[in-house]
Write a structure and sequence with these properties.
Elements lengths: L25 H21 L5 E13 H4 L13 E14 L5 E6 L4 H4 L3 H9 L5 H4 L6 H6 L7
């Protein structure tokens, strides 16, 4: 069971980009965003370093090349039919602005539920079972990745 703060504290607003969309010209908006990014970078460099950061391979996902590259190969004679996307998750532990340890799990993939989407379900049914592990190898699940770091998924 995941425990969440009803109203989390320890977060600070990113004010460096305030007003960036108010400029009339696109180049002025871009200039404002670039200045804000420099200011945010300096603010983050002054903050305490993260305590822990690690990324984990979860699985490879076959995906139609046409959608992956939005038709880039449409004029070529030999077209790749599928590409493999690598699903990963990132675990970061840091001290928030109030000094409390926070754990952030970024891009966790629930591929067990994803297998039930129409596209992946159809692909699975059309592929012989003995090829599943070769075509879409699963390296580990999110709970396994957390356990390898000694973190309970709560």
């Amino acid at each position: 069971m995941m425990i969440r703060d009803p109203e989390p504290t320890g977060f600070a607003q990113l004010t460096e980009f305030d007003g960036a969309r108010n400029a009339a010209m696109p180049q002025d908006r871009l200039r404002t965003i670039r200045h804000g990014a420099e200011a945010l970078r300096e603010r983050l460099l002054d903050a305490p370093p993260v305590r822990f950061a690690r990324s984990f391979n979860l699985l490879r996902i076959p995906y139609p090349a046409w959608f992956a590259f939005t038709g880039v190969y449409s004029q070529q004679l030999l077209k790749p039919h599928m590409v493999h996307l690598l699903a990963r998750t990132v675990l970061i532990q840091y001290d928030d602005f109030e000094g409390r340890l926070r754990t952030l799990l970024f891009t966790p993939a629930d591929f067990e539920a994803g297998n039930e989407t129409p596209y992946f379900k159809r692909l699975s049914e059309q592929t012989p079972k003995f090829l599943h592990k070769a075509i879409a190898p699963v390296y580990q699940t999110v709970p396994q990745a957390l356990a390898s770091c000694g973190i309970a998924p709560e």
